[in-house]
Specification:
By secondary structure, the chain is of the alpha+beta class. It contains eleven helices and four strands. It folds into two domains: 7-128, no CATH class; 133-274, no CATH class. It is 61% helix and 10% strand. It has a four-stranded antiparallel beta sheet with strand order 1-2-4-3.
């Protein structure tokens, strides 16, 4: 968010957080309005109205996040009066602070606080969700990719790809064919990955399947045609990669370099252990 959340601000938002009987969190509009320094509650209600519209426009039922209720408040001399209030979920609060006056320092702090809280909740929910069909497919394809890369390395060695450097060049030729000239380093850069991150661990199922086809077909051709010499092996690998790319193009598919980066396969493995 660009704003460092102070302990004082965090304590303010935590201090008005309510926990329901089922452990659900909520905030109330009147308490949040005070913390956000809205002297006139009617001005805060206008911000809440914009947040309600934003929630509705996003396809999420706003009545699940903005719940009106009435409460009695003391007005002196042991008397009370009834006032309207709104019970707000974390998501409702997040939308409200995004629509609040950004020139206020406390609003900027609130944007940071609720963004962090929302993200933490998303991560916790994701950790506890069962693996999707695509998650399971990714895990299977990644295992197959690891196995067939080992087979490909064996076939390449028999062809004359002897040293680790030779094999790195050989692998890059396959990527260059499949990714339109991009080698491993360029693919990492294109997808915003660090040099230490294995590109295979961040491929979705479609991209993994394309690379698996490249690897298996190259291995088969090296052995079937009894290819000898690392230069010839490199050429074969690039040609096979290019043919897989052409097939994707002919089918109207998305080029692999344009496919989205997936969450690390290591996280999926951890998720599987928890399920």
């Amino acid at each position: 968010m660009g704003v460092r959340l102070t302990k004082k601000a965090k304590d303010s938002f935590e201090g008005i957080k309510h926990i329901g009987e089922n452990g659900e969190e909520h905030w109330t509009a009147r308490e949040l309005a005070k913390v956000l320094e809205y002297a006139d509650y009617r001005n805060f209600l206008e911000v809440a109205r914009k947040a309600w519209i934003a929630c509705n426009n996003s396809g999420i039922n706003p009545y699940d996040h903005f719940v009106t209720f009435t409460e009695m408040v003391p007005i002196g001399s042991n008397a009370e009066r009834q006032i309207d209030n709104i019970k707000l979920t974390r998501y409702a609060c997040y939308l409200i602070v995004q629509n609040a006056n950004p020139s206020k320092s406390i609003v900027a702090q609130a944007q940071t606080y609720f963004a962090i809280q929302t993200r933490r909740a998303e991560l916790l929910l994701d950790k506890n969700l069962p693996l999707s069909k695509d998650d399971k497919k990714r895990l299977l394809l990644r295992r197959e990719m690891k196995k067939h890369n080992a087979h490909l390395a064996g076939a390449a060695k028999e062809a004359g790809v002897a040293t680790p450097l030779d094999y790195a060049i050989f692998q890059n030729k396959g990527y260059e064919g499949l990714y339109g000239g991009l080698d491993r380093s360029a693919i990492q850069k294109r997808k915003g990955l660090k040099k230490t991150q294995n590109i295979l661990d961040h491929m979705g199922s479609t991209e993994l399947a394309a690379n698996l086809f490249r690897a298996t077909q190259t291995e088969d051709k090296l052995r079937r045609d009894n290819i000898k010499g690392k230069d010839m092996a490199n050429r074969i690998h690039k040609e096979v990669g290019a043919k897989v790319r052409q097939t994707i193009k002919d089918l109207g598919g998305t080029m692999p370099e344009n496919l989205p980066v997936a969450d690390s396969i290591k996280n999926l493995k951890e998720k599987k252990k928890r399920n």
